[in-house]
Design goal:
This is Translocation/assembly module TamB domain-containing protein. By secondary structure, the protein is mainly β. Among the domains are: about 400-555, no CATH class; about 1415-1550, no CATH class; about 1560-1570 and about 1580-1660, no CATH class. Helices cover about 10% and strands about 55% of the residues. The chain is built from 20 helices and 90 strands. The strands form three sheets. It has a 55-stranded mixed sheet that branches. The chain has a 29-stranded mixed sheet that branches. A six-stranded antiparallel sheet has the order 85-86-87-88-89-90. Helix 14 packs across helix 15.
């Protein structure tokens, strides 16, 4: 080697050595801390200058070539906030291997690292962008191509992170993240980026606390895309999934909070431990195999807050399924355990559910899961669930769930199932399978079911938690607390299911066991069921707990036991069934076959046996058991083609305590022809019905014949009175369509027997006619006639009326909620009708309403036109008397004109118990839903006394009532009214405004305290006179008055109203007595309590009532009052007696406490009478009570020697008690003793029915209930009695002779015998029932009684006598009397015109009772003594020489002998020769001759009567030769007339009610002046006339005849002449204007010596007029006059808001009505009037203009 070479080598070696030395030096220096710090400071200084922000690195440690450690690193951003900071950054990397393109990181260890990154608007830059910009060169160079010759290899081993915090805030995308990590470590066994293979044996994470917040940004355009971030999406086959192998993942103490303000989402997750052991994770194969998952103490919550505004969801693009690869992940988990987990989900946007599982508010606690062998793929899921339990805040508690489950695309299986909650247990097995999910909807029948549920139970408490809406279903509410036990199997496809056994039970009695085979589901048309119902049992106790009360009517009472079994085979269109029902209230069976094929066929048997319907319907007192059987067999459902046979039988039915039996019904249908029959052989419901019909045509035809042979309502227990009915109902309708009705329904041969009376009804007909132009419906009967004629359809007539009325009044039209428009009335055809009605007081009405003693026909007429919306109606009720209340001349009118409805009601007189209301008119209009009303009341003189004018407006579901300005007149005075007065009431409540009334210091105000509805309502009075209103009623008895002052306040009107009042009535008077001042303080300020303080003071009265009355809402009312009576004047009591007391003085004082309830008050205290005295007006008996006390206690009233003193000082003493707890029912325990007590001391002025003096001695004992007392004791009428009784003149003349003639029905014998009245002599008994009276009556022989028989003639009876009688009243009401009244002295004074005779009773005459008070035996003789010449008596027995001996006057006794029974007395006469006077001086021959003649007369009663009457009237005998005696016969006639009048009057009183609706006239003619035979003879004739009104009172038939009672028959005269005289009067018009009369008279003519018959025809015209000139007006002028009067009435109605009505017009109209009624013929109904529409009923009243109604009525009568 040369020198150069050596030098070169040395040089190279030196250079290399130097380099190596430098490197070694550098390597040594870099490991020196001072050098390192120097370098770091240089670098820091450089960086600070470069980026212009503070940079700090406290320490750098390098251990080359591997380890790099940085400590105390700090980078600050431009906002002077931390960008990056760290306690230590340690990286163990092989630097030398970087030379070989290999990055080998052995360890990464970061501690205490904090990084804060943010991006702000508007520049959208990160806080580290300034660093990037500082190192980016301004000269941009083209990027060099990447060297791909070699690939960098990466290797990472250990990673350890401690105390890591990452803060990221991005205003551009609206995100804020604060991530804190306590510890993280792992080792990466393989990290091959080239092959994408990674293996991580273990990952440990501990202590993560992270919060993430997101919000919506205003500008979404600034949000970067993934391209801006440099993220590339791999696609296609080249994008292979990495190969990752994971070992175990151990995560502990994790807490993550997430908030999304845009969606109001808050999520929180915190758990203690999560352990996952992986077997395999193959992303390429999409498989996950996990050995174990363990999650402990997880607490997770997701909450959605309330969104203020819901934005529409952003549109998302659905990925194209054809371009994306299908996913087929498979997951296996060997063991999954979740312990003590808590999961909550809350969505505030969903409504809260108070009860049940709230799916928007879930909160699961105690969630434990044990799952093994879990497998998941996209088409299947399976596993073994060993444990699942949790509790939810709703109460759902899943205690245990175990099952082996499997789910695939073709089905699901639950094996070894065990599900348990506190109320539910489901066990065993369930499987469902199907071809595919895609076809399951279209092929439900192919679903395969296989389930075996063994001894399971289902608790509805759990079901309602899962389905909370069940709680709102009324039908489900009773079930929600029940548990149902289930045991059974099911297998097969849905369209072919087999249920080999199903058992179901619940509660105590409900059990079901059955087998079934179901086919055809879900197609119900193909459905088929083969059901074998082996047993189904239940009962009332269970059903009451299973069925909601609202689902069953309150009137249903379920049976105690129910059992059902049987079979059912078939489907909806064809089935066969056989069922048997057995229950505690009866049994039932049904067998049926049904097939709805081409022709529907059916065959069924149905039977019920002793079903207790009364128990079922809670009508045990009305209904009982029913047994019924029926068979039906037929084909077809179309009525026109139907072929069917129906047979039914009511075997027995209990109703109202009666058992109906043997009622058969049959029906046959043959292609439109229908026949039916109903037969009842029940003895008390005997009827037979035959019906037929034809349904082939357009309108069905029906024929009906119903024979009601007998209905006995009393035996059927329908009535307490005996009512029996017989009749025939016949109907024949050629068209039974209601809109085209043609036919007639008649009730004929109707007989009603009411107790002992029998009444035959006239025919009642319902006639219907219809053609293309008009319809007619007409009702004809004796009590009601009605018709409706016009063009209309019956089914739409109600709609037409409704539509017409809404034109005038429709305040709240119905609004359609969908359209918001007013609902219109459905369309209907036009209707024009005319209607009329007449109601009469027929005999039937008299029986039904006996208190309706008088009623003139009531009429109603009108018309209606739907097109013009016009309504006209007029009603008239001339007179009615009901129960003492008399109403006269009532009329009402309704008319429409000019879009207004006018109405008027006029009442002329109302009389009630002396109170009279006269001249009352109510009228007004209805227009635009405003009711205008006016009320006028006039006095008897026609002067306006009261007037009220008001308006009623409907507005917004409320009504507004207001008085008009001059709309109030009270008692002739016009009151001032606030013009702004109004009372609002309705849906919104009550509100009164400015309702102020005033007059001369009198004021009444009604006003709400506030301007809102239901505010407190005040009522104020100032000197308001009671007379102002009381004088409305004209009554002499009801006079009261006083001044009202005070106020009342009504509050809480919207809920429970309460009130307070303080009202005083000053100087209150009643009748003629001033009571004093009455102060009323009543309030219920305390809830449910009424506190009262009522005081009466002044005029000697001092009374106070204080206390409380409590009315709890659901309890019994109670009271607690104290009544202090310091003094109550007897004169005050007299004022309230309505004249029954007079001359009262003294007073009452005491104190009472009143407690308890209104139904059972407890009254304690005493009332003391102080010098009290009163006179009973009708008795004129004065009674005094001084220091007499009545004691009240909890058991009733006590009388301790309570003494009444009469006017003469005699006393009556009352001892005992009246027990009561209710003061409505009383029990008597009283003893009454009196001695010579005067109970009557009056004259005829006091009481003209009975008067005089009546003094009694008595010892009575009253026991038992007050309504049925027991009265025992004695009663003596003593010698100081002198009493007069007057018999009332109910029948003063002989016009009405009801009860004398008996009418016999000419109907067939069987019909008359059906309802025959057998006991025709039964007398109407007393209505007093329940009493048990037994009195011994002793009449003193000196007690005098006078009976005035006829006050007009002066006929009277005077008797004195003695009697020992026993009087009794049985509890049933029968009165008995036993004993004898023996007359000591007395007389009967007989008067006839100017002749007065006195008959003295013979001592010893008796009246004997044997028990029946009306069945007394009479044995009475009255004697009239006079002096008479016997010459006329014996002139044929003596010669002329002896005549003078017989001209001297001898004493004669005329004997009137009364015998027989009291109800049928036998009266006879006798004449005896008296004693004394000339009887002692005449010769014996004279007396013997006279005696012999008198004995001869006794054998000839007619001759004896003649001589008797001659002696009484003329005072002498009558000779046998009529021409030798004058006046004898007329005397006899007068006497006979007087006696006949007396007897006839009494008989008519007994028989007056037996025949109603028949007028009887009698004329008894008795004379001795009959010389028709040439000799004077006695003759007595009785003329009887009978009249009856028929055909609605239009036809009057009068039949009369003469009966010879005494005397010889005239030559040529008929022996019998029944119905000899006949007269018929027929009203050709209903108003009685035209009358036709036909008569026939059959009478004897002396000149012709025979019967003479006269016949004739008459025509009568009645004209009514207001003015005489109207008689000569033609029809047009009369029509025009009627229209003028109608217009006058309209104007009158329009003026109802004025101060006064034109009284002249009203009086003229009223006078016109009265004159019309007066001008009508007797016994004819008043003319029907309609001032507003004169043509009303014109078509109807002339029957022949519509149809031949006269011939129809004639046919009915025949």
């Amino acid at each position: 080697m040369n020198k150069v070479g050596r030098i070169a080598v040395k040089t190279i070696l030196w250079l290399v050595g130097s380099i190596i030395g430098l490197v070694l030096l550098l390597f040594i220096l870099i490991r020196i801390p001072a050098v390192q710090n120097f370098v770091v400071q240089k670098v820091v200084s450089y960086l600070q200058k470069k980026i212009e922000t503070p940079v700090k690195i406290q320490r750098v440690s390098l251990d080359l070539p591997k380890l790099l450690v940085l400590e105390g690193v700090y980078f600050e951003d431009q906002k002077q906030d931390t960008l990056v900071a760290g306690d230590q950054l340690k990286v163990d990397i092989s630097l030398l291997k970087l030379l070989n393109n290999k990055v080998e990181v052995n360890e990464v260890d970061l501690k205490g690292i904090t990084a804060k990154i943010d991006r702000t608007l508007p520049d959208s830059s990160f806080n580290f962008d300034y660093i990037i910009r500082a190192f980016v060169s301004e000269d941009k160079k083209e990027p060099e191509p990447e060297d791909t010759t070699s690939t960098m290899e990466f290797s990472i081993d250990k990673i350890n992170l401690d105390r890591i915090r990452l803060v990221y805030k991005d205003e551009v995308i609206g995100t804020n993240v604060d991530f804190n990590l306590h510890h993280f470590d792992t080792r990466i066994k393989m990290f091959d980026l080239e092959q994408m293979r990674f293996e991580i044996p273990k990952i440990t994470i501990e202590g993560i606390n992270t919060s993430v917040k997101q919000w919506a940004v205003t500008d979404t355009s600034a949000i970067p895309s993934t391209k801006d971030l440099g993220v590339e999406q791999a696609a296609g086959a080249e994008a292979e999934m990495p190969d990752i192998k994971l070992g175990s993942l151990n995560i502990e103490n994790i807490k993550v909070d997430y908030e999304d303000q845009a969606s109001a989402l808050n999520a929180n997750v915190a758990f203690k431990k999560l352990l996952v052991d992986f077997n395999d994770l193959n992303l390429k194969e999409e498989t996950v195999d996990i050995k174990r998952i363990l999650l402990d103490e997880n607490d997770a919550k997701i909450a959605f807050g309330k969104l203020s505004v819901k934005e529409p969801p952003a549109e998302t693009k659905t990925p194209d399924s054809t371009s994306a690869a299908e996913m087929n992940w498979k997951v296996n988990i060997g063991d999954l355990q979740l312990n003590k987990n808590h999961i909550a989900y809350l969505d505030a946007n969903q409504p809260r559910i108070k009860k049940g599982l709230d799916y928007g508010n879930l909160d699961f606690t105690g969630l434990d899961v044990k799952l093994a062998d879990f497998f998941f793929s996209m088409d299947s899921i399976s596993g073994k669930l060993a444990q699942l339990n949790f509790k939810d805040r709703s109460g759902l508690d899943l205690k245990r769930l175990e099952t082996d489950f499997a789910y695939t695309n073709q089905g699901a299986t639950l094996g070894n199932l065990y599900l348990e909650t506190p109320n539910t247990l489901i066990k065993n097995y369930a499987q469902v399978s199907y071809p595919s999910l895609e076809t399951i909807t279209d092929h439900l029948g192919e679903i395969q079911l296989n389930a075996n549920i063994e001894k399971s139970k289902l608790g509805m408490k759990d079901i309602v938690l899962l389905v909370p809406d069940l709680d709102t279903m009324e039908v489900m509410k009773p079930l929600l607390t029940r548990t149902f036990y289930i045991h059974g199997k099911i297998n097969g496809r849905v369209d072919n299911l087999t249920i080999p056994n199903i058992e179901f039970s619940t509660l105590d009695q409900t059990r079901l066991q059955a087998t079934a085979h179901l086919k055809g589901l879900p197609d119900m048309d193909k459905f088929y069921m083969d059901l074998q119902l082996k047993n189904f049992t239940t009962g009332k106790r269970d059903l009451d707990r299973l069925i909601a009360k609202s689902m069953l009517p309150d009137s249903i009472d379920l049976p105690q036991r129910v059992a059902l079994k049987g079979t059912f085979k078939g489907g909806m269109n064809q089935f066969t069934t056989n069922m048997h029902l057995a229950s505690s209230i009866g049994n039932a069976e049904v067998r049926a076959k049904y097939a709805a094929l081409k022709d529907t066929t059916y065959d069924a048997d149905f039977a019920i046996h002793d079903i207790d319907v009364g128990h079922l319907m809670k009508m045990d007192s009305t209904l009982g058991k029913i047994s019924f059987a029926a068979k039906v067999k037929g084909k077809g459902l179309d009525p026109s083609k139907l072929i069917a046979d129906i047979q039914a039988k009511l075997i027995s039915a209990e109703a109202m305590g009666y058992t109906y039996t043997d009622i058969d019904f049959t029906a046959k249908a043959n292609q439109g022809d229908l026949e039916a029959s109903l037969t009842s052989d029940d003895p008390n419901l005997d009827l037979d019905m035959q019906a037929s019909g034809n349904l082939k045509g357009k309108y069905p035809k029906v024929n009906l014949a119903l024979l009601i042979d007998s209905i006995n309502t009393k035996n059927l227990n329908l009535t307490t009175d005996s009512i029996r009915f017989h009749g025939k109902l016949a109907g024949n309708f050629d068209s039974a369509d209601p809109d085209f009705l043609n036919g007639q329904l008649d009730l004929t041969n109707a007989i009603i027997a009411y107790n002992t009376s029998r009444y035959t009804l006239d025919t009642i007909s319902l006639i219907a006619r219809a053609d293309s132009s008009q319809n007619l419906i007409q009702l004809r009967s004796e009590f009601l006639d009605a018709h409706m004629i016009g063009s209309y359809k019956l089914t739409s007539l109600a709609t037409a009326f409704q539509d017409a009325l809404t034109r005038y009044y429709n305040p709240n039209p119905t609004v359609n909620p969908k359209t918001g428009l007013v609902d219109t009335i459905p369309s209907y055809p036009p209707a024009q009708i005319e209607f009329g009605m007449t109601f009469r007081r027929s005999p039937l009405i008299i029986k039904m309403a006996p208190e309706l003693t008088e009623m003139q026909p009531i009429t109603l007429d009108g018309n209606f036109d739907s097109e013009s919306k016009s309504i006209h109606a007029k009603g008239v009720a001339p007179k009615a008397v009901y129960g003492g209340t008399e109403i006269q001349n009532v009329s009402f009118d309704i008319n429409t004109l000019d879009s207004a409805l006018y109405y008027a009601v006029l009442v002329n007189t109302i009389k009630v118990s002396g109170i009279e209301l006269t001249n009352t008119l109510l009228s007004g209009t209805v227009k635009n839903s405003v009711v205008d009303a006016g009320l006028w009341i006039k006095d008897k003189g026609g002067k306006e006394q009261y007037h009220i004018g008001a308006n009623l407006l409907a507005k917004d579901d409320d009504f507004i009532f207001s008085l008009k300005k001059d709309g109030l007149m009270l008692n002739y005075d016009q009151w001032s009214i606030n013009p702004e007065n109004a009372i609002h009431f309705g849906k919104n409540g009550l509100l009164a405004k400015h309702f102020d009334l005033s007059l001369n210091g009198q004021e009444m105000n009604i006003a709400s305290q506030d301007s809102v509805s239901n505010s407190p309502l005040g009522l104020n009075f100032k000197n308001f006179r009671i007379e102002t209103l009381a004088n409305m009623l004209e009554s002499n008895q009801l006079a009261l008055g006083g001044g009202i002052n005070g106020d009342a306040l009504l509050e809480r009107l919207e809920s429970s109203p309460v009130f307070t009042s303080d009202i005083t009535i000053n100087d209150f008077y009643f009748g003629t007595d001033t009571i004093g001042d009455i102060n009323l303080k009543v309030n219920n300020a305390k809830e449910n309590t009424y506190n009262a303080a009522i005081a009466i003071a002044g005029n000697g009265n001092d009374i106070k009532l204080t206390g409380d009355y409590v009315t709890p809402p659901n309890g019994t009312s109670s009271m607690d009052f104290v009544l202090d009576v310091n003094n109550l004047n007897m004169s005050t009591i007299e004022a309230f007696s309505f004249g029954n007391l007079r001359r009262s003085s003294g007073g009452i004082n005491g104190s009472l406490t009143i407690k308890g309830t209104p139904d059972a008050p407890r009254i304690n205290g005493d009332l003391l009478f102080n010098q009290a005295k009163m006179n009973i007006s009708m008795l004129n008996a004065t009674f005094s009570m001084d220091q007499q006390r009545i004691n009240f206690n909890n058991r009733g009233l006590n009388f301790n020697s309570f003494t009444l003193t009469d006017s003469i000082g005699n006393k009556a003493v009352i001892d005992g008690s009246v027990r009561t707890r209710t003061y409505t029912d009383f029990a008597l325990n009283l003893n009454i003793k009196a001695d010579d007590f005067q109970v009557l001391n009056s004259t005829a002025v006091d009481n003209n029915l009975f008067y005089g003096q009546l003094n009694i001695d008595t010892d009575l004992r009253l026991r038992g209930a007050a309504m049925s007392p027991s009265v025992n004791g004695s009663l003596k009428v003593n010698e100081n009695t002198n009493m007069t009784l007057t018999m009332p003149e109910t029948d003063p003349g002989l016009v009405d002779r009801e009860g004398i003639v008996e009418f016999t029905s000419l109907s067939p014998k069987d019909s008359s015998e059906i309802l025959a009245v057998y006991d025709t002599t039964d007398v109407k008994r007393s209505t007093i029932t329940g009493m048990n009276v037994n009195l011994n009556i002793d009449v003193d022989r000196n007690a005098a009684f006078t009976v005035i028989v006829d006050p007009g003639t002066g006929d009277q009876l005077f008797v004195k006598g003695q009697a020992l009688l026993n009087f009794g009243i049985e509890p049933g009401g029968n009165m008995t009397l036993a004993g004898t009244y023996e007359i000591e002295e007395g007389n009967y004074s007989l008067s006839f015109n100017m002749i007065k005779r006195r008959f003295d009773f013979k001592k010893g005459s008796t009246i004997t009772w044997g028990g029946d008070i009306m069945d007394a035996d009479l044995n009475m003789t009255a004697i009239y003594t006079l002096q008479a010449q016997p010459i006329d008596l014996v002139q044929n027995q003596i010669n002329g020489t002896q005549a003078n001996f017989y001209r001297q006057r001898l004493p004669f006794d005329v004997n009137l002998m009364i015998g027989g029974k009291m109800l049928k007395p036998e009266i006879s006469f006798d004449i005896d020769l008296g004693t004394g006077g000339n009887a002692n001086t005449v010769s014996q021959d004279v007396t013997q001759t006279v005696q012999a003649k008198l004995a001869q007369l006794r054998n000839n009663p007619s001759e004896m009567n003649k001589q008797t009457f001659a002696l009484i009237v003329l005072g002498r005998f009558i000779a046998e030769n009529p021409f030798q005696s004058a006046g004898g016969s007329s005397t006899e006639t007068m006497v006979r007339s007087s006696v006949s009048s007396l007897l006839t009057s009494q008989l008519n009183k007994l028989a007056g009610d037996l025949i109603a609706g028949v007028e009887l006239n009698f004329d008894l003619q008795s004379t001795a002046d009959d010389y028709s035979t040439g000799q004077a003879q006695n003759r007595t004739d009785l003329n009887v006339g009978v009249s009856k009104r028929l055909l609605n009172d239009r036809l009057k038939v009068t039949v009369g005849s003469n009966f010879e009672l005494e005397g010889a028959q005239q030559p040529g005269q008929k022996a019998t002449n029944i119905a000899g005289d006949i007269s018929l009067e027929y009203q050709l018009s209903r108003d009685g204007r035209y009358i036709a009369r036909v008569y026939r008279k059959d009478q004897y003519q002396v000149t012709l010596q025979g019967q003479f018959i006269e016949t004739g025809l008459g025509f009568i015209i009645n004209m009514n007029y207001d003015e005489f000139k109207e008689l000569f007006m033609n029809a047009k002028k009369l029509q025009r006059l009627s229209e003028e009067r109608a217009e006058e009435m309209k104007e009158l109605l329009d003026k109802n808001d004025e101060e006064d009505i034109d009284s002249t017009s009203m009086r003229r109209n009223r006078r016109h009505q009265e004159e019309e009624q007066q001008n009508l013929p007797d016994n004819n109904p008043p003319k029907e009037q309609n001032d507003s529409d004169g043509h009303i009923n014109k078509a109807y009243r002339n029957d022949e203009e519509i149809m031949d109604q006269t011939s129809e009525r004639k046919d009915d009568e025949e």
